[in-house]
């Protein structure tokens, strides 16, 4: 212990000892007194069997009154040394509950807890068979009728879903479904992943040619198997697709590709789902106990209904169906939208000799990639962070330890600095007529992502094309009418067009439920994503966590899993533990099931 860490370590150890002692004697008031009056306790499953943030003393008191006796927390132990900066002491700790082990993070101010994070890491008696507990694999000796590894895998593939039913069916075999499937496989939960594409990774391969990850490699690892240390910082889409395909095979997932989920219903008599799928031209009925939708970060493509669109003589499609730029050299191309996909598609079309016009309907946040990597992500997800002892596991927990209610205050200084650093680019964009914003409160990209899942572009080069006029811009207008070879804008002007791309985003994830199950079930679950911040496209009331993500919904045995690669990796752990607990028949009383305030 160094001189700089001795005092904060003592302060954290004292607080943690007092906290553990108060919990052990079921003293709710003494426990609450250890927090600031407006302090936060974010719990990922360990205490609440939910993903929930208790905001303020009243909420912490209510949670403890309801859950302390059953949870039986114990064995709180400081992990490593604490640190202190700007009057805030930070420390890591481990703990146990009656049924699980956990890890947590603490921030102290003036001797009291400002933020507390508690997370479940494993269920007692149902630990993953890793490290010293790994299976032997080989069966030494002589045994009649023994099966090889391959024979066992072939038998599992032959019987699961037919002679034997899975515990879990995951609809969607992209990054989210694959990450969750890997977690469940390690926990011994029989699971089938349903994917309509022919191969794992096709959800990436089938996107437009120029697509690359805009997030850096350190942010994007899958569970258990990080990318090699020479993996590119920003991976091209086809490389990501190949990695997902390899991962699916190596992790021994029961992955049903070329399979389409047709209809699902919950059978109250058997307490199982009945999921009808088409596989290899034949109908198969799966009867899992738990049904997970892992269909990305959004629902169906938003395709605007425009007068005259049926008469257009050129090509028109949503950005999700864009085939690439090769066929449009020398063509007049109009892209409706101004976020990530719109910029990527405009840039690729321009590179291939197209005449491109972007139509910007509303303001957009621009975050230059280099500045974003350094200012916003560098402290947690970078080569330097790894050298400083912050791998993606630790970074995920640090990220998760910041309550959403105050997260914007952490981000505002970052984007204030970005405004200064990239002032020249922003000035030239505005001179070109581009409408800029930094979020409703200046908190920038990630808060926009959490609140609405849209409204931004991570600039990897296309902003310069807009600023210098290479990509033409029409801002503050929309398409009023589509003509045979042009579009008429709401200001009355007309643009010739051979190609019309609708880079207009996606709907809520529960839109899938309306078709696959019923509109009534979709409305019971309610809107997915968003915090209730009462900012554009994120209506209140305040909810404190992402709506319906990775936690119990208003429909029992129905779950939503998704997000970017980072979220798919991190939150798949907590969803898998919830599913494992139910598979083993553990009591899982959910504290404060979130209500549905919005339908779709």
Explain what the structure shows:
The protein is of the alpha/beta class. Helices cover 32% and strands 23% of the residues. The chain contains 18 helices and 24 strands. Strands 2-1-6-5-4-3 form a six-stranded mixed β-sheet, with helices on both faces. Strands 9-8-7-13-24 form a five-stranded parallel β-sheet, with helices on one face. Helix 9 packs across helix 12. The longest helix has 22 residues. The relative contact order is 0.13. The model has no long low-confidence stretch (mean pLDDT 95).
What is this structure, in a nutshell?
The protein is of the alpha/beta class.
List keywords for this structure.
600 residues; alpha/beta; 5-stranded parallel β-sheet; 18 helices; 32% helix; globular
Strand order of the largest sheet: 2-1-6-5-4-3
Beta-strand segment tally: 24
Flag low-confidence runs: none
Major β-sheet annotation: 6 strands, mixed
Classify the secondary structure makeup into a structural class.
Answer: alpha/beta
Rg value: 25 Å
Which percent range describes the beta-strand content?
Answer: 15-25%
DSSP summary: helix tally: 18
Query: How helix-rich are the residues, as a percent range?
Result: 25-40%
Q: In one word, what is the shape? A: globular
- What's the mean pLDDT score? 95
Distance between the termini: 53 Å
């Amino acid at each position: 212990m160094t001189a700089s860490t001795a005092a904060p370590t003592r302060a954290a150890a004292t607080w943690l000892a007092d906290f553990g002692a108060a919990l052990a004697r079921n003293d709710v008031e003494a426990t609450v007194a250890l927090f600031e009056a407006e302090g936060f306790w974010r719990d990922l499953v360990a205490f609440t069997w939910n993903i929930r943030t208790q905001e303020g003393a009243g909420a912490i008191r209510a949670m403890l009154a309801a859950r302390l006796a059953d949870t039986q927390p114990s064995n709180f132990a400081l992990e490593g040394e604490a640190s202190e900066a700007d009057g805030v002491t930070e420390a890591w700790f481990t703990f146990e509950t009656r049924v699980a082990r956990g890890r947590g993070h603490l921030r102290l101010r003036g001797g009291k807890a400002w933020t507390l994070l508690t997370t479940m890491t494993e269920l007692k008696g149902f630990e993953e068979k890793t490290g010293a507990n790994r299976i032997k694999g080989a069966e030494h000796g002589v045994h009649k009728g023994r099966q090889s590894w391959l024979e066992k895998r072939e038998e599992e593939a032959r019987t699961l879903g037919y002679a034997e039913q899975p515990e879990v069916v995951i609809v969607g075999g992209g990054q989210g479904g694959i990450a969750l499937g890997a977690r469940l496989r390690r926990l011994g939960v029989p699971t089938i992943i349903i994917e309509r594409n022919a191969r794992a990774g096709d959800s990436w391969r089938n996107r437009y040619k120029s697509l690359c990850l805009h997030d850096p490699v350190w942010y994007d690892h899958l569970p258990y198997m990080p990318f090699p240390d020479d993996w590119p910082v920003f991976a091209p889409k086809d490389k990501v697709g190949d990695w997902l395909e390899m991962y699916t095979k190596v992790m021994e997932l029961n992955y049903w590709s070329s399979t389409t989920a047709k209809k699902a219903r919950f059978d109250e008599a058997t307490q199982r789902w009945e999921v009808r799928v088409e596989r290899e031209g034949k109908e198969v009925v799966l009867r899992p106990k738990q049904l997970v939708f892992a269909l990305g970060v959004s629902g169906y493509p938003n395709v605007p209904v425009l007068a005259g669109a049926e008469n257009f003589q050129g090509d028109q499609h949503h950005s999700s169906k864009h085939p690439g730029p090769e066929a449009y050299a020398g063509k007049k191309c109009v892209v409706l939208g101004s976020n990530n996909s719109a910029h990527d598609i405009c840039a690729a079309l321009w590179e291939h000799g197209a005449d491109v016009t972007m139509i910007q309907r509303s303001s957009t946040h621009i975050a230059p990639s280099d500045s974003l990597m350094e200012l916003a992500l560098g402290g947690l997800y970078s080569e330097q962070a790894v050298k400083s002892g912050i791998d993606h596991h630790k970074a995920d927990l640090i990220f998760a330890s910041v309550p959403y209610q105050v997260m914007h205050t952490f981000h505002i200084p970052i984007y204030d600095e970005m405004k200064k650093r990239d002032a020249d680019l922003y000035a030239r964009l505005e001179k070109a007529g581009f409408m800029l914003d930094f979020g409703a409160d200046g908190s920038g990209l990630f808060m926009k992502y959490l609140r609405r899942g849209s409204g931004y572009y991570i600039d990897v080069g296309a902003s310069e094309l807009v600023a210098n006029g290479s990509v033409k811009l029409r801002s503050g207008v929309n398409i009023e009418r589509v003509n045979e070879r042009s579009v008429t804008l709401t200001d009355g002007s007309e643009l010739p067009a051979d190609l019309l791309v609708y880079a207009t985003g996606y709907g809520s994830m529960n839109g899938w439920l309306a078709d696959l199950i019923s509109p009534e079930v979709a409305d019971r679950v309610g809107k997915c994503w968003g915090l209730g911040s009462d900012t554009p496209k994120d209506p209140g009331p305040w909810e404190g966590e992402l709506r319906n993500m990775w936690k119990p919904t208003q429909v029992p045995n129905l779950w939503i899993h998704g997000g970017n690669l980072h979220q798919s990796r991190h939150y798949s752990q907590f969803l898998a533990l919830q599913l494992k607990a139910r598979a083993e028949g553990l009591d899982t009383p959910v504290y404060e099931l979130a209500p549905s305030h919005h339908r779709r």
